[in-house]
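In this section we walk through a basic example: taking a raw amino acid sequence and producing a predicted 3D structure, encoded as discrete structure tokens. The instruction is simple. Fold the sequence below.
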Amino acid sequence: MTEVNSLSIIENVDIKSVESTTRK
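The resulting token sequence is shown next.
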């Protein structure tokens, strides 16, 4: 469960990062 949670968090951060770069 912890591994899946970690992957989800990493994916979330990656998506936010991409959105941030696109907005700029």
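Looking at the output, two observations stand out. Residues 2-23 form the longest helix (22 residues). The radius of gyration is 11 Å. In the next section we compare this with other chains.
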